[in-house]
């Protein structure tokens, strides 16, 4: 009797487990695919047909199944629109007359691929810089590194920043990695999925015994080359300047003593021709003006005409006097010259 009851219990429990619907779990991978699987607890015994859809959209069968031992265990389909994850997502497994439907909230269920293009360099500011690239700036990251293979140290990085600085690194071997997850401002939360760690990058050396940080080998090779090239160019420029007499020594004249009267001509370097032109080689010519009075009008006080001549004892130039510049009448102070005196003057 007890054996019959035991067999009946095992049959019923086995039938219940066999009819238990598989649990479907879905993730948005790298904002490019929706990955769903139904083998979390165990591998299903039959091949299910998978359908999925968002709100107010028709169901679609899985375009690409994931299988294990010829049994469908998951589905990978394109994530067509970024805003779809804020809507409800529905899945349905169908096998014969059995179907299992489930509703999912994909808003927070986003997992990124590991960051790529991860590089490390020693900056001009004597700091160590780690840089990486992620598909979106709407992610927060965290960096971890260890020195000489010791314990990992992890540090958070704010959303939108894709670099990290290690101040004044020591002369040791650094191993660095980075991972990312969806930021809170884009629908993420504390329960958001972190990506896998990136491939490690290394800087430095365990065998370094000096206090100077390990620099890039290419930099150490090019530094003396650049110094030598700069010195060669400088020497070449100096030789060219000397050849074309571009370098001149400017002598400043000595300032004379204040007690002695300075000779202005010695201060200014006049051309020889201009300096000779300032010398006066001619004698001065005396000039006098008189009024010529005819003999008939010698007693008259009025003069009809006045003229000016020069007493040219040694001069050959006469200076005519403009009639408009002479007065029409002669004053009493004007000297008169008689014909006899004129003759004497002409002699």
TrEMBL record:
Recorded source organism is Pagothenia borchgrevinki (Bald rockcod)
Assigned keywords, A-Z: Membrane, Receptor, Signal, Transmembrane, Transmembrane helix
Report the GO terms under cellular component: membrane
Keyword DNA-binding present in the record's keywords: the answer is: no
Main subcellular location of this protein, as a coarse class:
membrane
Q: Where in the cell is it found?
A: Membrane
Q: Cite the residue spans of the region called Disordered.
A: 294-347
- Which residue ranges run through the membrane? 221-242
Query: What name goes with this protein?
Result: Cytokine receptor-like factor 2-like D1 domain-containing protein
User: Which residues lie in Low complexity bias regions?
Assistant: 301-316, 328-338
Start and end of every Cytokine receptor-like factor 2-like D1 domain?
Answer: 31-75
Q: Looking at the Swiss-Prot or TrEMBL record, what is one Pfam family this protein matches?
A: CRLF2_D1
Signal peptide (residue range): 1-18
Q: How does it sit in the membrane?
A: Single-pass membrane protein
Tell me yes or no: is Metal-binding among this UniProt entry's keywords: no
Gene3D superfamilies (alphabetical): Immunoglobulins
